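Private note to self, pasted from the team thread so I don't lose it. Backbone tokens:
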């Protein structure tokens, strides 16, 4: 196998400590977007739904050339459609500063608490799998005691932050010939399919989100623990500031594969039963899910508030190299 095409984005382990996040004002870029997305869907561009309820595939638009108004339209479309798959992008080649500045339009850039980043670029999280690599696999997620039959682990990113990530860029640097896709599920549509009576019962509930175990496990393995542990209380039913639509902020909750832990004020059995039902809806409802596939030049943008996702580790013998850049959003309401 040839050497990596983008060595400047290879993962490095850096134990730099960062100040804990402080709450900052946030205005959603999507609140400035246009209903017809006139600044995003430029002449000559093409777009189509991935499924009726989730996702949009876009071609003929270069993210790197978008105006501020175009980026506002992108944010609104991501809030409405959940995940956007941009094809034939030059974004991987425009340089680090341009990449970071583009995502910074949507909010303060997140730094992963534990995982490797490219040398000197803490705002980028590296996703790298190479069968020829001699380095140990770097993961701050404690493995299960028994192996699962599936690689699917549904979650939303870093929900234990005071201001969890919103708009997220996932930039393909090298992709396998097939496989390595990402599954997405709409938390907005999951809420919509509930009965009105059940929706009433969920209103006002809050989930405890906690990343302590991730940081402790990382430290036990000699990996970075860049921030203090964070425990937050966020609403189970949230409202998106740009669309006004409600969604279920419960993906992976109570299952040990994410940072949402339990419903505040409920007894254990009550919390487990409620979260099991909600995650059955989120994880098993194929009609509110979509699958993003990758090819050279693909950039996938999602709104981490309104979708859950899972990578699929179904490829063997090929390199898969991505960088993820995430903008932190509002304090959940």
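Design output:
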């Amino acid at each position: 196998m040839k050497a990596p095409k983008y060595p400047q984005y290879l993962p490095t382990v850096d134990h730099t400590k960062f100040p804990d996040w402080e709450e900052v004002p946030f205005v959603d870029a999507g609140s400035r977007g246009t209903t017809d997305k006139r600044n995003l869907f430029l002449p000559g561009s093409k777009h189509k739904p991935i499924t009726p309820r989730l996702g949009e595939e876009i071609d003929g638009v270069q993210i790197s050339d978008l105006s501020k108004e175009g980026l506002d339209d992108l944010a609104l479309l991501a809030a409405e459609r959940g995940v956007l798959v941009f094809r034939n992008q030059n974004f991987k080649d425009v340089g680090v500063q341009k990449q970071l500045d583009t995502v910074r339009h949507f909010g303060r850039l997140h730094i992963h608490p534990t995982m490797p980043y490219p040398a000197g670029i803490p705002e980028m999280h590296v996703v790298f799998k190479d069968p020829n690599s001699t380095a140990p696999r770097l993961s701050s997620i404690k493995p299960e005691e028994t192996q699962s039959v599936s690689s699917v682990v549904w979650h939303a990113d870093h929900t234990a932050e005071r201001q969890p990530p919103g708009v997220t860029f996932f930039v393909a640097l090298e992709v396998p010939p097939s496989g390595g896709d990402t599954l997405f599920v709409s938390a907005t549509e999951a809420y919509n399919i509930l009965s009105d009576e059940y929706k009433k019962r969920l209103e006002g509930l809050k989930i405890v989100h906690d990343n302590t175990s991730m940081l402790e496990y990382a430290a036990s393995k000699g990996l970075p623990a860049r921030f203090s542990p964070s425990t937050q209380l966020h609403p189970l039913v949230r409202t998106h500031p740009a669309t006004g639509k409600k969604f279920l902020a419960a993906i992976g909750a109570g299952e040990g594969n994410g940072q949402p832990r339990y419903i505040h004020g409920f007894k254990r059995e009550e919390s487990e039963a409620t979260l099991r039902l909600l995650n059955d809806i989120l994880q098993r409802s194929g009609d509110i899910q979509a699958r993003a596939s990758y090819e050279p030049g693909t950039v996938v943008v999602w709104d981490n508030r309104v979708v859950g996702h899972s990578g699929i580790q179904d490829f063997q013998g090929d390199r898969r190299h991505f960088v993820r850049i995430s903008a932190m959003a509002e304090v959940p309401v």
